[in-house]
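Risk register update: the risk of archive-format incompatibility is retired. Evidence:
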Amino acid sequence: MTFENPASTALNQILKDLIIQNANTSYHPDKYKDLDLAEFTRQTVIFKDLLRIYETLPDPSADSAASRMDRIALRESVDILQKILFPWMTDHKVGEPGVDSVFALAESFRQEAGIVITTGKGGFRWTVHQVSTLRNVLNCKLPIEM
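Archived output:
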């Protein structure tokens, strides 16, 4: 691995060159009939772990220049992975209600209520439709976990 930008940190390079690149080449939700649920699960676990790491970082006021760059790289990688794995979470038309990042979505829900949806390989398409209906037709603001 070579550093293209000398100001870039090792973490930034690992996130972009390994994790994001692997998700981009391995996961294709547009081909749901050929959806590899094992790969989707691996990518989702990585997404969850990166998000959990970000949430446990110390207060940003204590950041050095390097740790600030790492914080930004981690946040950008979580956003990119979310857009690859769960594009419908932040996909909304201009002027319609919605959020632009998974962080904005998480910050909007600080309550202990939500919806849990179980689905299998054959139900992925219908689950996406159900979530879209809850969000866009019923204007449901509760967090949804699948």
